[in-house]
Amino acid sequence: MNTETKVSEIQVIYHPCKMYEATLTTSSDVIAILRTVWDEGRIEMQEEVKVLLVNSSNAVIGVYNLSKGGITASLVDIRLILSVALKCLATGLILVHNHPSGNLNPSSADLSIVKKLKTACKLLDISLLDSIIITKESYTSFNDEGLL
Asked: Which domain holds residue 80?
């Protein structure tokens, strides 16, 4: 009887690509980058969540498209955010999502997920630098508003 046990092989591989030559210092820097990758045709129709990842110099590593939801909500999987951040060796991240309604005020769900994400990031020595709500016309930065 063959009792050989097989185990899945796990590899962690990172292939950096210098797609962005930007260093972030303000929330408007973040918005300038996100406007280049956001589908403006959907910003008032479907909620999306993106994560902007940075290194220790606040240079942009990349933008990760976390999820697309419906008109009023989208899934934010903290484990997935952190696994992406760890894989690309990010030391900081910025969570960004749109409100198709155009309302720039954070919902109670927004506040709750940011609190959970901040706690989880802290455990891994990753800085949650900001959480931003974006609309077609403007944005709200949790950091700028003292909500972080």
From this structure: 39-125
